[in-house]
């Protein structure tokens, strides 16, 4: 893995976009986005999408109501007081309009709430939040927790690839890790243990294999972290044996109870991204913690 360049100072958040449909779920997203914007001095864009696939007069009424609701929220909610807020009413399909707005506004981070599922539709397409994450080139934070408190503990599962490295580096650059106790977790697979046991290898040899495998995993994690130079982050490491990445992440999060989980996902284009399940999507659907998803493009993509 090539050493990632380290800036002289962390980039921090300059523009945060929060998507709202005025529900309690999206209110968590707006509150979390407001807290992050206040902490970093960022501009906060609060975006609402009106479905334009309906009669023109209905669209006009919904746009007017949305503009009024956003203006009232910015004026009346104390958690928005003193922030540089930009209300934004968009037309189109929610996930597509949010993705486009994040790009056009120059957002460093897009914050969305978890969304109630429509069973048959979500089997094939996913929730609006998941579809934003699938298509966004901007890091997306899914806000599941009560945003009243700042992040105190974060968890970063890593698989020792550039994707994991870039996810960690992006979270650091956005200033999301510096005030937390970060746990970097690497899960390794002692794949040959079952075969050795089945082949009747003696217990001493099997134990030696397990010890050597864990030692190698610890060494590999140290090598992985060296070029990241996380000297401005209070972090510790956890190395454990496992075989199912999503399940391992969820079990670790259940045990460690982080406020924030940081994961990278390979950014893909086209229909393959819509159909291909991933560890990230399973974690999003099952884990009730705040989750930062960093899209990482492979070299040459």
From TrEMBL:
<keyword id="KW-0547">Nucleotide-binding</keyword>
<dbReference type="GO" id="GO:0005524">
    <property type="term" value="F:ATP binding"/>
</dbReference>
<dbReference type="Pfam" id="PF00582">
    <property type="entry name" value="Usp"/>
</dbReference>
<feature type="domain" description="UspA">
    <location>
        <begin position="14"/>
        <end position="142"/>
    </location>
</feature>
<keyword id="KW-0067">ATP-binding</keyword>
<dbReference type="InterPro" id="IPR006016">
    <property type="entry name" value="UspA"/>
</dbReference>
<dbReference type="InterPro" id="IPR014729">
    <property type="entry name" value="Rossmann-like_a/b/a_fold"/>
</dbReference>
<protein>
    <submittedName>
        <fullName>Universal stress protein</fullName>
    </submittedName>
</protein>
<feature type="domain" description="UspA">
    <location>
        <begin position="153"/>
        <end position="295"/>
    </location>
</feature>
<dbReference type="InterPro" id="IPR006015">
    <property type="entry name" value="Universal_stress_UspA"/>
</dbReference>
<comment type="similarity">
    <text>Belongs to the universal stress protein A family.</text>
</comment>
């Amino acid at each position: 893995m090539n050493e990632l360049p380290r800036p002289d100072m962390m980039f921090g958040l300059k523009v945060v976009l929060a998507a709202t449909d005025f529900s309690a779920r999206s209110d968590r997203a707006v509150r979390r986005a407001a807290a992050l914007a206040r902490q970093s001095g960022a501009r906060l864009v609060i975006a609402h999408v009106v479905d334009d696939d309906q009669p023109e007069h209905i669209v006009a009424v919904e746009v007017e109501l949305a503009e009024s609701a956003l203006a009232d929220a910015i004026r009346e909610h104390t958690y928005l007081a003193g922030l540089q807020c930009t209300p934004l009413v968009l037309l189109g399909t929610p996930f597509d309009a949010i993705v486009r707005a994040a790009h056009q506004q120059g957002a460093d981070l897009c914050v969305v709430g978890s969304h109630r599922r429509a069973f048959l539709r979500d089997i094939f397409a996913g929730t609006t939040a998941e579809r934003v994450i699938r298509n966004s080139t901007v890091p997306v934070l899914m806000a599941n927790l009560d945003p009243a408190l700042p992040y105190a503990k974060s968890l970063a599962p890593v698989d020792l690839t550039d994707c994991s490295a870039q996810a960690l580096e992006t979270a650091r650059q956005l200033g999301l890790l510096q005030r937390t106790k970060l746990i970097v977790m690497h899960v390794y697979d002692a794949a040959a243990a079952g075969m050795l046991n089945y082949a009747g290898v003696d217990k001493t040899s099997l134990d030696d294999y397990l010890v050597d495998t864990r030692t190698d995993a610890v060494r590999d994690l140290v090598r992985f972290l060296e070029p990241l130079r996380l000297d401005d982050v209070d972090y510790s490491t956890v190395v454990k044996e496992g075989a199912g990445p999503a399940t391992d992440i969820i079990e670790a999060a259940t045990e460690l109870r982080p406020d924030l989980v940081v994961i990278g996902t390979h950014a893909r284009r086209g229909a393959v991204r819509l159909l291909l399940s991933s560890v990230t999507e399973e974690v999003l659907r099952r884990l009730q913690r705040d989750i930062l998803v960093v899209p990482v493009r492979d070299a040459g993509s």
